[in-house]
Write a structure and sequence with these properties.
This protein has 9 helices and 23 strands. By secondary structure, it is α+β, with helices and mostly antiparallel strands. Helix 3 runs parallel beside helix 5.
Length: 415
Amino acid sequence: MAKEWTLKQGEELRIEVDVKDAVMVKLVEGTAEIFGAEMVLMREYTLSACKLAVFTYDGCLLELSDTISKGEAVVYVSDEGVITPKVFEFFNAHRQSTVIVLGHGRNTITRTLANYSIRSGLNPVVISIDPRRNAAYFPTCLSAVVWRGVVEGDEVTMVPTSYQSDYAVSMVASLFFGSTVIMDNRKLYVQLVSQLAQWVKKLPKDFHPVLITGPGTEQLDENEGLASEIVNAFSIDDVLIIGDERLSVRLSKHADIRDRIVKMPKSGGLVGWPRSGDNCAQDALVKAYFYGTMKRPLTPFTQTCKFDSVKIKNIKLDAGAGVAPMSALPVGAVRKLADQHYQSVSTITRSLLYDVMAVLHPNSNNNDQEDSINVAGYVHVTDVDEERQTITVLSPCPGELPSLNFLTGKLKWIE
């Protein structure tokens, strides 16, 4: 049975739904928004595996259905710790800026700023350099996506393939890091950040603002000086820190960051995900990439290839283990960057089963650093038949793959 919720001016309805549950919310009267995207009157929004708030500036009447499943959604109205007006105020003051969002709820803030940009007639570039939770494209990658339309409130991810019907994405760059942990290969991570920054700087001048979701505080703590490298690579104007005074104090010690810091309190409704929630979030993103969402499903396609027709390289992780020191090289020899970060998979075995691999463009030979930039997409290894010498991969759409050259790392996904 549906239940009505009346929100006064400046209030929000906070909803927490488990991954196995779903609720439907409908705007009956007034105006409201989710993540900066306006709700359409009398349209049903299906919410699952999310923690969000429906905010209203002028008051509204909402209708919420019973939970689908045996669990119970957490639903309540509050006007305490509401930060949506502060986010909108920040947006109005930084429409042309390059902004990195750090701290608590950074994916939500980036998404909200991007939606406000679209509603204002701008073309935001949405970037995620958080390999642990890249909600803008795909886990374990660094990505830049040029938005052309809003992401509706019932989209649980910001995966471009879910926009196929309204062409809300016009350009995508994706760089495969292959791990959720930056310390696994910090040198490669910094190199990819630099390459992504160069790609963004070549975009037309009317693509703005540039909105970057940065790494989590824990990863910044583990990698001293990383924040400065990111700020300098992207020529960042503003460092927006959400509800993390400790991080603000630590970063203010860096001269190249100190004057760019803008602090904002975290939402009163923010509920942190447990570490196990990282895996759930990654699973949801991978599933949405290959199968779409309830709102816009995709029809994935499998392709079987002979071992001798594919070329696979593995990204060297675990802090550069196995890389010989420069003193061990012949006199006058120079190590290529690719030699430090990639190694060929000479023998295909079932150890590749369930790997998620990046597909390189046809002109990529993986002999230099440029091969890391803008991979064509991702496939999932669903079978390895050593007897028949075949490997079967799943792609999100029918048709031949751009190439049979792949990169693999630590990301595995079991349906």
